[in-house]
Amino acid sequence: MKKYLGTMVGGAIAGVFVFAIWGLFTEAFGTAGGWLGGPLVVALVWALNHYVGAFYLPDGAVAIDMAVAIGIAGTMNGVFRGKPIAAAMPTLFWMAVGAILGGIFASIVTDVIAENS
């Protein structure tokens, strides 16, 4: 039970950090802040969730946990601010397209690495 609770809390932290802190970087430094905030915020949360071990990730599992948590947090962020969930559908669609393309690319890279080993 503890491992699942850690995954839920770590995912919530990831979503909150992305939507709270990344925007502050963008407000303070403009576009450069957005580009700077991405690696800093995601790296910090990744270290907490994966290196420290907040997330439960079984052997052989694919680590899409933070992306799903951040996507859900972003969708619910708008809903909690009174916007209809339909407004988030284009973003969720493109997030799904990106996830599919990322999975295809990861599969190709894994196959190439396996062939060269």
Automatic annotation (TrEMBL):
TM segment ranges: 6-25, 32-49, 61-80, 92-114
Assigned keywords, A-Z: Lipoprotein, Membrane, Transmembrane, Transmembrane helix
Keyword Lipoprotein found: yes
Statement: the UniProt record of this protein carries the keyword Nucleus: no
Protein name (record): Outer membrane lipoprotein SlyB
Species per Swiss-Prot/TrEMBL record: Halanaerobacter jeridensis
